[in-house]
Q: What sequence folds into this?
C-alpha cells in the first residue's frame, strides 16, 4: 500500500527524505563517533541501527500501547493525568493525538500501571523493560558524543540520565488516521524537545518530519529496525551550541494509525545545566547562562509548543 504524503502547509517545502543520517552502532567505534557528532551538529537528528534492543522488547511495548489506546475513552480517562487527548501542554495547543505520559522510573511505572491496565504486572513489566533498554541506548550515545567532543569525563551527559532523581519520561503518542479532506493534518505541532536526548520508535507508518530551517521540512521514513535520536535543548546548551536541538512535528496519516514511543532523557530537577569547561574557550565563550532543569521546565510549561525557549537563556539576555 502506498501511503499518502501529508499535505504541505502554505509556504512550506517538503524535501527528500534520503538525507537523514543513519548510524550503525555496531560499526567501527571511531567512525560511529564521527557520524554521531556530524549528524548532531548538522541535523540534531539521526537514526541508529543495530542498537541492541530486542524485537521482542519493542513488540511487547508496542502491543501494550495499542492495547491501552484501544480501550473505551471512559477507561483511558481513568489514567489521567497520565492520559491526555487533543490538548498539548497548558497554553491552548491542540493536536490530532492522544497520549500516555509516564515518569521513567520503576516505582512510578508500578504505581500508574494499576490504573492503566487490568493486566497490571504484564503492563508494568513491558514498560519497565522497554524504558530500561532505551535508557541504555541513550546513555551509550551520550557517552560517544562526549568522547567525540573531546570531553575528558565521557559520562558528563549520561550521568544526568542515570541519576536516581532523573526527570526522564516515556511518552506514547497515538495518531488515528484522518481523512485526506480533513482541514488539520498536524498531529503534534512544530517544537523542539526541551530535555537532553530523545530516543523515538514508531510503528511502520509515516508522519514524523524535521525542520532545518523555517518552512523546509524533511519527512523521516519509518524504519522498524531503527531508532530515531533527537538532540534536545539541554544538550544544545551543554555542548555550548555545537549540537542543535532539532525542530520537528508529527503529521497524521490518511490510511493507518501511527503510534510513537518516545523516551525523553532528562536531568534531575536541581541539576545545573552548563557546558563542560573544555567546550568553553576564548574563541567560543559560553553562549548560555547557567540554569537548572527546574528553571527550564518552568519556562517550557509557560510558553506555547512552538515557542523557542532556549533563547531565553542566552548569556547576553538579562
A:
Amino acid at each position: 500500500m502506498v501511503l499518502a504524503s501529508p499535505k504541505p502547509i502554505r509556504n512550506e517545502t517538503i524535501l527528500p527524505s534520503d538525507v537523514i543520517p543513519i548510524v550503525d552502532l555496531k560499526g567501527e567505534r571511531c567512525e560511529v563517533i564521527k557520524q554521531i557528532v556530524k549528524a548532531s551538529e548538522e541535523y540534531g537528528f539521526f537514526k541508529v541501527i543495530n542498537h541492541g534492543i530486542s524485537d521482542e522488547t519493542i513488540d511487547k511495548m508496542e502491543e501494550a500501547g495499542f492495547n491501552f489506546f484501544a480501550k473505551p475513552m471512559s477507561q483511558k480517562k481513568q489514567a489521567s493525568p497520565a492520559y491526555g487527548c487533543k490538548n498539548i501542554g497548558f497554553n491552548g495547543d491542540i493536536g490530532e493525538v492522544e497520549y500516555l505520559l509516564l515518569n521513567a522510573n520503576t516505582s512510578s511505572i508500578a504505581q500508574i500501571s494499576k490504573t492503566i491496565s487490568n493486566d497490571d504486572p504484564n503492563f508494568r513489566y513491558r514498560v519497565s523493560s522497554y524504558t530500561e533498554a532505551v535508557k541504555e541506548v541513550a546513555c551509550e550515545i551520550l557517552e560517544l558524543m562526549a568522547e567525540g567532543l573531546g570531553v575528558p569525563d565521557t559520562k558528563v551527559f549520561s550521568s544526568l540520565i542515570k541519576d536516581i532523581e532523573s526527570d526522564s519520561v516515556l511518552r506514547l503518542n497515538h495518531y488515528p488516521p484522518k481523512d485526506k479532506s480533513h482541514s488539520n493534518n498536524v498531529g503534534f505541532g512544530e517544537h523542539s524537545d526541551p530535555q537532553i536526548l530523545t530516543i523515538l520508535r514508531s510503528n511502520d507508518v509515516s508522519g514524523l518530519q524535521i525542520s532545518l530551517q523555517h518552512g523546509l521540512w524533511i519527512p523521516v521514513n519509518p524504519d522498524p529496525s531503527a531508532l530515531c535520536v533527537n538532540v534536545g535543548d539541554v544538550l544544545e546548551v551543554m555542548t555550548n551550541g555545537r549540537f542543535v536541538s532539532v525542530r520537528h512535528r508529527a503529521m497524521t496519516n490518511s490510511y493507518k494509525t501511527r503510534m510513537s514511543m518516545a523516551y525523553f532523557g532528562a536531568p534531575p530537577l536541581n541539576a545545573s545545566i552548563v557546558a563542560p569547561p573544555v567546550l568553553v574557550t576564548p574563541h567560543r565563550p559560553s553562549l548560555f547562562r547557567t540554569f537548572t532543569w527546574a528553571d527550564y521546565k518552568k519556562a517550557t510549561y509557560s510558553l506555547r509548543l512552538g515557542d523557542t525557549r532556549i533563547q531565553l537563556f542566552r548569556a547576553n539576555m538579562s
Observations:
- The chain is about 30% helix and 25% strand.
- The CA atoms of residues 61 and 126 lie 5 Å apart.
- The mean pLDDT is 90.
